[in-house]
Design a protein that fits this description.
Serine Threonine Protein Phosphatase 5, Tetratricopeptide repeat, BBS8
């Protein structure tokens, strides 16, 4: 009996239920190491050994388990060498690669910053916002500050490979199950063991090929009538990049058993194939069968947000809150949408709601500080930013806070303080393009043209998707008489933000000037 006077197997199960997976695995290991003669249990020694093996397998899996629905990182190879795109030049509004310029009445890049993929910065960082979909290899390799929400560095297998090394950590003596010596056909005929073994191979060992072999044998043994195995085969195909095969498996599973998870997996396939409208239709059909399902409504809102249709996204996020009024992502996204729509007071209410719910981090206090400043509640502004600096976990977060403090300083007219804040931003994060741009503007005010030009060149090379550095270079060059450079920079600015009126006027002036020459 264990330390609590329980049978070891029951004690292990108790640990598992309380999510103490390390202790559960240790108790199971002790049970499995006993000679068969000592394994006394009412159900017989072999039954106890099988139960201990099954429980240990599940415990080790749970220790490294990651929900596949939200785990989605595209690497450089997947983005640049993508052979699955349906149309290389898609119509605006039908592709995530061409999100369209605020077709849904959302704020323009002049108000709301965009990522390098052309989408507005979201109110909530999630895996799907980290897929940048850059247009060139150079843009994919370079990661500016805004690439913190559009990061194309780790390959799709990168996160999983690191998880796969967990097998060495959990068992210093070597892996718990030697996959190369397993008779998968035998295990496939025992459904209860097969499911636990599949999840162990897939999540803990990260051996997708063996997991796929086991799933194929098991679904064959179940005479293709078990929807669960079809979903697992689909997950394996998705991991291997075989999206069309994955789509077939998920569709087949949905015919047998209507499940929300399967709809989410299938939508993930369509998004990877760059078919957001198909994914939207799938979610809406799912809502007919599962009315009020939060994950489906949230999925629709995310797609609209990624396609730059901000007003539709906001409506669906409000629907999410009608079903679940503590949904952090929906509250954060609605809050950021109100902030960028020039309604800081309303945004403040949403961020205060997050604070009441127990969210307590640097980003929240940073947003509270900005909302307080623009809502003219100056007494709370600096204290919020102080708290944000105190809670910052890394240099990037500290840089964000100092950058926003620089904005506050510009707002109250203290340009010396603003200069110091932007300098501190660059001390913490040397790739902060917006800080280089704003420092250049301050240098131009002081009449330091060459320093301003150098800072603007740095900003435009770090963030070619931003229109401000290009426009400022155009203005600066026109002032000093370098009209050709001014025209080139203005064209880049127009490319980054086609609706910018000042850029269009500058190009028109320069064309008139060139016509006179």
């Amino acid at each position: 009996a264990g330390e609590m006077g329980l049978e070891p197997l029951f004690q292990a199960w108790s640990y598992f239920r309380r999510r103490k997976f390390r202790e559960c695995a240790d108790v199971c290991s002790q049970l499995l190491e006993r000679p068969p003669g000592e394994q006394v249990a009412r159900a017989g020694p072999w039954r106890e050994a099988a139960a201990a093996w099954n429980l240990k397998t599940r415990a080790l899996t749970e220790m490294v388990y990651v929900d596949e629905i939200d785990m989605d990182q595209e690497g450089i190879a997947e983005m640049i060498l993508d052979e699955n795109a349906i149309a290389q030049v898609a119509r605006p509004g039908t592709s995530l690669k061409l999100p369209g310029t605020s077709q849904g009445g959302g704020p323009s890049p002049a108000v709301r910053p965009v990522t390098q993929s052309g989408r507005p910065i979201t109110g909530f960082v999630r895996p799907s916002t980290q897929s940048g979909r850059p247009s060139t290899m150079e843009q994919a390799i370079r990661t500016p500050r805004t690439a913190l929400t559009a990061r194309p560095i780790t390959s799709a297998s990168g996160g999983y490979v690191r998880l796969g090394t967990a097998s060495m950590l959990t068992n210093p003596d070597g892996p718990f199950i030697n996959l190369s010596r397993l008779n998968l056909t035998k295990y496939a005929q025992k459904p209860k063991l097969a499911k636990a073994l599949f999840e162990y191979i897939f999540h803990h060992e990260n051996d997708v090929k063996n997991a796929l072999d086991l799933a194929a044998l098991a679904t064959e043994h179940a005479q293709f009538k078990d929807w669960w195995w079809k979903v697992q085969i689909g997950k394996c195909y998705y991991r291997l990049g075989l999206y069309r095969e994955a789509e077939k498996q998920f569709k087949s599973a949905l015919k047998q058993q209507d499940m929300v998870d399967t709809i989410l997996y299938l939508a993930k396939v369509y998004l990877r194939l760059d078919q957001p409208l198909t994914a939207l239709n799938l979610f809406k059909q799912g809502l007919d069968r599962f009315p009020g399902e939060v994950t489906l409504i949230c999925g629709i809102a995310r797609i609209y947000e990624e396609m730059n249709n901000i007003s539709s996204a906001a409506e669906y996020y409000k629907d999410v809150l009608k079903q679940d009024n503590t949904h952090v992502e929906a509250i954060a996204c609605i809050g950021s949408n109100h902030f960028y729509s020039d309604q800081p007071e309303i945004a403040l209410r949403f961020y205060r709601r997050l604070l009441q719910m127990g969210v307590y981090n640097c980003q929240l206090f940073n947003n509270l500080g900005l909302c307080c400043f623009y809502a003219q509640q100056y007494d709370m502004t600096l204290s919020s930013f102080e708290r944000a600096l105190f809670l910052a976990e890394n240099e990037e977060e500290t840089a964000d806070v100092w950058y926003n403090l620089g904005h506050v300083a510009v707002g109250i007219g203290d340009l010396n303080l603003a200069y110091q804040c932007f300098k501190l931003t660059l001390v913490n994060n040397n790739d902060y393009a917006e800080a280089y741009n704003n420092l250049a503007v301050l240098e131009m005010r002081k009449g330091h043209t060459e320093q301003a030009r150098a800072l603007l060149q740095t900003a435009s090379s770090l963030a070619p998707h931003m229109y401000e550095p290009h426009f400022n270079v155009a203005i600066l060059s026109e002032k000093v008489g370098d009209l050709q450079r001014s025209y080139t920079a203005a064209q880049k600015s127009e490319e980054a933000f086609p609706g910018h009126v000042d850029t269009q006027q500058l190009i028109k002036q320069l064309k008139e000037h060139f016509a006179m020459l």
